[in-house]
Amino acid sequence: MSETHRISPETIEERLEVVTDPELDRSIVELDYIEDIEIDGGSVEVAFTLPTAWCSPAFAWMMMADARDAMAAHPAVSTARIRLRDHMHAAEINEGVNGDLAFGEAFEDADGEVESVRRELDGKARVARQYRATESLLDGGLQPEQIARLRREDLAIDPESSRATIRLNHDLSVCVEAESLERYLEKALATGIADEAEKRLFVTPEGEAIQPSEFETVHSRGRLAATNMTGQGHVCENLGASRIGSPSD
User: Fold this and answer.
1) What is the DSSP string of the chain?
2) What are phi and psi of 2, to 5 degrees?
3) Burial (0-12, 13-18, 19+ Cβ within 10 Å), 196
4) Cα angle 92-244-7, degrees, rounded to a multiple of 5
5) What confidence score (pLDDT) does residue 54 get?
6) How far apart are CA 91 and CA 87, in angstroms?
7) Interatomic CA distance for residues 55 and 59, integer angstroms
8) Angle at which helices 90-98 and 57-72 pack, to 10 degrees?
9) Cα angle vertex 123, ends 222, 140, to 5°?
10) Which neighbouring-strand residues pair with 38?
11) Is the pLDDT at 231 greater than 90, yes or no?
12) What is the pLDDT of residue 2?
């Protein structure tokens, strides 16, 4: 059996690295939410503990459903189950996600499904990632009006060198570190931004093209989104460390 198809705590954790806390836009592995991984043949059950028992049921549902789907995508996993511990709605979430119910079926008094919440949080994450990506371009010497005019086809990322090439015109290109641009592009594509070669690479929070004169305003809104996520992340890290210990404990 190839390493790709082998089930182990390490390969399951690799799958879960792509699952993010939607409020913080950070991996649940990085945030140390995973408490236990049990493997029995092709069956895998993962136990999670969130920083607080009162974390939004919709946020918890999204993380648990995404985690179950990420595990189920492993080619050797036949059954994937999640177990949320010590949460005020753990019973409803565990039963609903493992039973493949819709959020509204598990929470009859819910005001709508989680997809609208997911779209809103994905939009905030995209704006925060755009701020970090455009900061790297400003550091690389690009001018705001050049950044505002970029289209998807002007960006090329080389995974092997971890470098991104930005084409400014037929005769001039700039190379920068790829990490922030790669993370931005991932979320931009997931939210329907820059999903065609001719589309603008960076847009306003509302999804409109950025006029050069409004670049600073859009950039400031991105900075605010990134700062809020970072601040909320510190709060959650402290709550989690008090509740379940820090990663280094």
Assistant:
1) --GGG---HHHHHHHHTT-EETTTTEETTTTT-EEEEEEETTEEEEEEE-S-TTS-HHHHHHHHHHHHHHHHTSTT-SEEEEEEES-TTHHHHHHHHHTT--HHHH-TT-SS-HHHHHHHHHHHHHHHHHHHHHHHHHHTT--HHHHHH-BGGGEEEETTTTEEEEE-SSS-EEEEESHHHHHHHHHHHHTTSS-STTSBSSB-TTSPBPPGGGHHHHHHHHHHHHHHHHHHHHHHHHHHHHHH--TT-
2) -70, 160
3) exposed
4) 70
5) 87
6) 8
7) 7
8) 30
9) 40
10) 45
11) no
12) 57
Please state, in angstroms and as integers, the Cα–Cα distance from residue 249 to each residue in 26, 29, 48, 50, 77, following that order: 20, 15, 17, 16, 31
Give the tokens for residue 238.
């402290």
Determine the pLDDT at residue 230.
86
pLDDT digits 0-9 by tens, 108-142: 887 778 899 999 999 999 999 999 999 999 999 99
For residues 27-42, average pLDDT: 94
Among candidates 82, 43, 35, 44, which has minimal Cα distance to 60? 82
Structure tokens at 30: 């990085």
The pLDDT assigned to 244 comes to 64
Phi, psi of 165 (to 5 degrees): -110, 125
Q: In this predicted model, what pLDDT tens digit does every residue of 80-91 receive, in sequence order? A: 999 999 999 999
Residue that has been written with the tokens 């084409």 in this structure = 167
In this predicted structure, the answer to whether residue 172 has a pLDDT above a threshold of 60 is: yes
Token look-up 């079926």 returns 105
